[in-house]
Design goal:
The strands form 3 sheets. The protein has a 5-stranded mixed β-sheet. Strands 1-7 form a two-stranded antiparallel sheet. A two-stranded antiparallel ribbon has the order 8-9. It has one helix spanning 23-28, and strands at 19-20, 33-34, 57-67, 74-81, 86-91, 97-98, 100-101, 110-111, 121-122. It contains 1 helix and 9 strands; from the N terminus they run βαββββββββ.
Length: 123
């Protein structure tokens, strides 16, 4: 289990206990249609899913490093999640939001509903 250096459990390999969401995690959360619809598979976007807030954001999942159709230079592309919940790929030079991910041990109790008046608390 990956943990921060100050932890008394795990491998103590992490400097920061936070990462970016992957395209797989977006799909497993119940969202993520579009790029994976139709020709590739039939999953449709779920605009009511909790990750979809009306803002486009990057994932950390790479698509590839290639010359786009009609392009002249190589670009590094990663998956992004559009404000509608659809997954697509794009050049990483564009400015979109990020979605952090933290991992919580299975024996941790979570209370609260994530609002300002009742934030999540871990014990």
């Amino acid at each position: 289990m990956y943990t921060v250096a100050s932890s008394n459990k795990g491998n103590k390999a992490l400097t920061y206990p936070i990462g970016l969401i992957t395209a797989d995690e977006v799909i497993l959360s119940g969202s993520g249609g579009g790029f994976f619809s139709g020709t590739y598979n039939y999953q449709q976007a779920n605009s009511n899913e909790y990750l979809i807030t009306g803002n486009t954001f990057w994932t950390i999942t790479p698509v590839g490093y290639f010359v786009a159709f009609g392009g002249a230079t190589y670009t590094a592309d990663v998956f992004k999640v559009l404000n509608t919940g659809y997954i697509d790929d794009d050049v990483i030079t564009r400015a979109f939001g990020l979605r952090p991910v933290i991992n919580i041990r299975s024996d941790v109790t979570v209370s609260g509903d994530g609002t300002i008046s009742s934030p999540y608390e871990f014990s």
